[in-house]
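Is this the right way to post structure tokens for a design question? Let me know if I should format differently. Anyway, here goes:
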């Protein structure tokens, strides 16, 4: 499967989160200051959709219990008890591509 086109860069405005389907897989794409990131669509805590979350700089916050993560690394910040899985992302020719075979975090639970 390797690199898959998820969306155009214009599909996700700055400081926004959007879900996209790649076959039967849902991917959450975030645009933080023009830098793109991709995650599973749900908070690792209680399956709250992260698309309802908030971006503040390089911090992603889930709205249910205010768990926070570093968007670049998936590392835990305020209140989080589990890191966030993220996928390798690149931008080419105005498209956001995600490598679904290369998870950058393996301790997602």
């Amino acid at each position: 499967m390797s690199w898959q086109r998820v969306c155009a860069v214009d599909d996700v405005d700055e400081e926004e989160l959007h879900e996209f389907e790649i076959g039967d897989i849902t991917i959450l794409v975030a645009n933080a200051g023009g830098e793109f990131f991709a995650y599973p669509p749900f908070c690792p805590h209680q399956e709250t959709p992260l698309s309802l979350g908030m971006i503040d700089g390089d911090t992603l916050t889930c709205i249910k219990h205010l768990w926070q993560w570093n968007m670049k690394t998936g590392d835990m910040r305020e209140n989080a008890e589990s890191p966030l899985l993220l996928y390798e992302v690149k931008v080419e020719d105005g498209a956001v591509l995600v490598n679904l075979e290369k998870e950058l975090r393996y301790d997602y639970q």
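Format looks fine. Someone answered above. Worth noting: DSSP finds no helices and nine strands in the chain. Strands lie at 3-8, 16-22, 25-32, 35-39, 54-56, 59-61, 68-70, 87-92, 95-103.
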